[in-house]
Amino acid sequence: MKLCDETEFNVTEDENINDHTFTSNTIVKKEPANDVDEESSDIPAENEKPEVMYLEFSNELPYTQIRNISDVVIEKSKTIYCKNTNTPVKPVLALTPKSKKQEVVTDKEELGKYNRKSIMLKTSIDHVAKLAEIYNNQKQKLKPDKIKFKSEISPVHNKKCEEELSREISKDSFKDMIVIGQFNLGFIITKLGEDLFIIDQHATDEIYNFETLQKTTELTSQKLVIPQQLELSGVNEEILMDNLQIFKKNGFTFEIDENALPTKRVKLLTIPMSKNWIFGKDDIEELLFMLRENDSEYCRPSRVRAMFASRACRKSVMIGTALSKADMKVLVDHMADIDKPWNCPHGRPTIRHLVNLAMVHTE
Predict the structure, then answer these.
(1) What's the half-sphere exposure (Cβ side, CA atoms, 13 Å) at 248?
(2) 291 and 152 in one domain?
(3) 100 domain residue, yes or no
(4) CATH number of residue 352's parent domain
(5) pLDDT per position as a tens digit, 145-160
(6) For 201-247, how does the pLDDT look when each residue is reduced to its tens digit (9 = 90+)?
(7) How is residue 59 annotated by DSSP?
(8) Which letter, b or e, does each residue of 263-291 get, where b requires 16 or more Cβ atoms within 10 Å of its Cβ?
(9) What is the strand order of the sheet 195-200 is part of?
(10) Which of 44, 71, 192, 211 is exposed most, by the fewest CB atoms within 10 A?
(11) Which helix (H) or strand (E) holds 271?
(12) Which structural domain, as residue segments, surrounds residue 357?
């Protein structure tokens, strides 16, 4: 086979170039097989037309074209990383928070850079002395002339506190008190002059209800089937006959025989009646002892007092009850009507002194 130019070359009929099909529009000139030499075959006949064949639809380039391999083969590099299951996984460490640094900002670097304004004050030593004198006089006025309450709020000093309160506070003082507010849903804070007081709302209402029951309640009585003869001393018999109304308030009624012998003139007709309380001759003797020591129209036996205290406690304002200022003022004003407003019937304190505001201001 003889190479020719890019457009034309000669091949023999029986040649098959590696059984490949050429992709190109290259013209192939086919010559008949004869015994003519190569020199005469180079010149075509005048009347003979060349047979042209178009080589199309091939997948490769023809071998007749000389091309560089770099023009045909395109090399691309790519790296592939494979996961290896055998390699240990590094543990993920938790990020520790960075410590905060506190920076102190000062104007140390700016000192001396700016001119500060200065103000001249016109004064004199006499003027300063006068101002100091005015200040000292005002400070002296704030100090109380007398410290009224010195006792601490403690169960040990209850008796001393009661003495100070009874000495410094009168019944009219309760009506002059100003209600500041309620503390912890159980205590009333009041002010009298420069002194602050704390009042137990349950205890003060209980003692008011207790004394009201003492003054107004007349116990119902139960008549005995057979009157009982009382054997009393002459003195106790006279005390009983002089205070029949007090005994009647406590549920005891008697029959008096003026013609009988002394110590034999009194018979018991009725006794007090209550659901959970039983009364008898012992209560009469206790009343006689109380009347002998302190003649009062409000004398009650201890068991009657305990009954009244239980009733007063149940009907009083409880700890934990929110009160308006009007309700608190009513409770404070009630203390002016109580004979002994310093403790409830069970011994619980009703009022204590907190602090003197003038002493706080001077400190």
Answers:
(1) 7
(2) yes
(3) no
(4) 3.30.1540.20
(5) 667 777 778 888 888 8
(6) 999 999 999 999 988 888 888 888 898 888 888 888 889 988 898 89
(7) S
(8) eebbbbebbbeeeeeebeeebbebbbebb
(9) 178-183, 187-192, 195-200, 351-356
(10) 71
(11) strand 266-272
(12) 130-363
